[in-house]
Specification:
single chain; 224 residues; five-stranded mixed β-sheet; two-stranded antiparallel sheet; globular; binds adenosine-5'-diphosphate; binds magnesium ion
């Protein structure tokens, strides 16, 4: 027939295009960044150049976030140990937690719970949720990470004692560019939702309202 491209091939073309696009944006940015850094060293200008450098980093991180749509799905899935992924995400954010007087508590009754997935993407999911939890706590508090087995499913529960969310904010979660932060880009949860969807999981978010904290529950199919 005239159908020349299979769906998988088309998808991989979109992926390649997106990856190429990201590459084309990053290359000139790297050059700009280098010269701005040189400018900082050769002149005494630091205020403007710092803003330029910060904004370059911002563009870079937005490009990275959209790269998630460029990656092929399920191609790189393997058996992943949830507890170890959660531990490594928590360890990575420990310095930021310390700075904000946030204590991270883990509750993993079964250290051997396995799910099927792409390890780095799963780590990204928990980094995004944990980072938000820490950022939601202005004057010290607690973030609790739990693994809970429920028959054929497993829940990862991330609970914080932070600023909480209104119903209106809850509805907007996962929308690109929804942020309440001065320096936020509102892409973290969009990426998180996309990855969870690719892993045949789901996410539930609950908050009892402003200053009552927030709970994120991510559910995955259990892998025996
Ligand atoms: P960003 O962190 O850049 O703002 P995200 O997509 O990660 O973008 O989060 C979007 C918004 O969701 C945040 O700006 C915040 O308003 C809200 N949010 C996410 N997690 C929490 C949380 N644990 N507590 C309170 N608000 C949260
Ligand atoms: Mg975020």
């Amino acid at each position: 027939t005239e159908e020349t491209l299979q769906k998988a091939e088309k998808l991989s073309m979109v992926g390649e295009l997106a990856a190429g696009f990201a590459h084309e944006i990053r290359n000139p940015l790297t050059t700009i960044k280098g010269f701005v850094q040189l400018l900082t060293e050769t002149t005494n200008e630091t205020v403007f150049t710092k803003t330029i450098l910060d904004e370059i980093d911002r563009i870079n991180s937005i490009v990275s976030d959209f790269m998630i749509f460029a990656r092929p799905h399920q191609a790189d899935f393997s058996t992943c140990n949830l507890a170890s992924i959660l531990q490594s995400a928590a360890r990575f954010l420990e310095p930021e937690a310390l700075l904000r007087n946030v204590i991270i508590i883990t509750h993993f009754p079964n250290q051997e719970v396995k799910i099927s997935g792409e390890k780095n993407q799963l780590k990204q999911v928990f980094l995004n949720i944990l980072k938000n939890a820490i950022e939601a706590i202005p004057n010290g508090g607690i973030v609790t990470i739990s693994i809970e087995e429920r028959g054929k499913e497993v829940n990862v529960i991330i609970e914080d004692t932070g600023v909480g969310m209104t119903d209106e904010q809850l509805k907007k979660l996962g929308e690109p560019f929804f942020t309440t932060k001065a320096a936020g880009n509102g892409l973290g949860l969009m990426v998180t939702y996309k990855i969870i969807q690719d892993h045949k999981g789901r996410i539930t978010v609950e908050s009892d309202g402003p200053n009552k904290g927030t709970t994120f529950i991510v559910t995955f199919p259990y892998k025996n």
